[in-house]
Amino acid sequence: MTFRIASIAIAAGLAMSASAFAQAPAAPNAGAAAPTGTYKIDPAHSGAFFEIGHLGGISRFMGRFNDISGDLVVDASDKAKIAVAIKTDSIDTNHEGLDKHLKSPDFFNSVQFPTLTFTSSHVRLDGKGEGTVSGNLNLHGVTKPVTLKLKQIGAGKGMKGEQRVGYVATTTIKRTDFGMNYAVPAAATDEVDLRINIEAIKQ
């Protein structure tokens, strides 16, 4: 499937200089850039979303994963990185029957493959806080390199004074690349958009 990371978020999303996280100037409405350091994804304010064409593409429908976790390192060097883990049985399309089918061996096979992960190998953002994150996506027991568009949304203090940062990461994948071959494209298109919204807390 394609994750436009609306996402893995993972994503969500992330900040940095021309070669890494978080030294990039924050967006105009976002305040200062995030301080360097290690951050943990806040699952209450993060999510991974997907969008796919139904019945060969006559319409679009969306779903999300409700269980997302992970860590990221904000740094102005090649030390910047992100790791996201998503529980496949947390899929939520607002339809119980569809959720059950998507968890079955026809699609995510949540019993055999309970977690999908994304681990970065390279992060790059420009002075506007926009760029890419490349890495390996493990889905349905298959690992493939993918590159996601990345944007820092903002950075600042939380309600308790904790440092927070937000990113959005998006990409499109083919589900057949990950062995998800059921009824392509009769049931659902091969291409899937993934979106990961990430809000993370400095540790």
UniProtKB/TrEMBL annotation:
Pfam families per UniProt: YceI (PF04264)
Keywords: Signal
Domain Lipid/polyisoprenoid-binding YceI-like: 38-201
Signal peptide start and end residues: 1-22
Source domain of life: Bacteria
PANTHER family given in the database record: PROTEIN YCEI
Name of the protein this chain belongs to: Polyisoprenoid-binding protein
